[in-house]
Design goal:
By secondary structure, this protein is an alpha/beta fold. It has one domain (4-140): HUPs (Rossmann fold, 3-Layer(aba) Sandwich), CATH 3.40.50. It has helices spanning 13-29, 51-72, 91-102, 125-132, and strands spanning 4-8, 32-39, 76-83, 106-110, 136-140. Strands 3-2-1-4-5 form a five-stranded parallel sheet, sandwiched between helices. Helix 3 runs parallel beside helix 4 (125-132).
Length: 149
């Protein structure tokens, strides 16, 4: 089935719920899991100096926390922080580019997340990822039953 699952992660509750799903799937399928946070650098142009650095630090803390949780279940997990830019001007573009580069077979993300300066990933991005990725996409909704890990 799926042996390479990419999780797009931010600090929203829906994304955290999606992380639980992705970990349970990866564990059950014995799949590799890659967790990615996107820093929206394109929207940071002209904003406060150091904002991208702060957002990268926040993303690293979030990824490290979830990586440790996945590792407790024996999941083969890696992480990445990527940024929007000329090649990937939107968050969805960056998620899809990471999925393609890592050869993901499934992308998991929350149906609603955070967007705008000071936040990491998702929101209306979910629809763009579902339309733009070259692999299967699982959108996790806030009310979806929590998986057994």
């Amino acid at each position: 089935m799926y042996s390479r699952i990419l999780l797009a992660l931010d600090a929203s509750g829906t994304a955290q719920h999606a992380a639980e799903h992705a970990i349970a799937l990866a564990r059950g399928l014995r799949a590799s899991l890659r967790m990615v946070c996107v820093v929206d650098s394109a929207s940071l142009a002209g904003s406060l100096p150091g904002m991208a650095s702060t957002m990268n630090s926040d993303a690293r803390l979030l990824l490290d926390d979830w990586m440790n949780r996945a590792a407790q279940f024996g999941v083969d997990v890696s992480t990445a922080i990527t940024e929007t830019g000329a090649a990937a001007p939107r968050v969805a573009d960056a998620v899809c580019a990471e999925a393609a580069a890592w050869r993901a077979q499934l992308v998991v993300l929350g149906s609603h997340g955070r967007s705008g300066v000071g936040n990491l990933v998702l929101g209306s991005v979910a629809e763009a990822v579902a339309r733009g990725c070259g692999c299967a996409v699982l959108l996790v909704h806030p009310g979806d039953a929590a998986p057994a890990a």
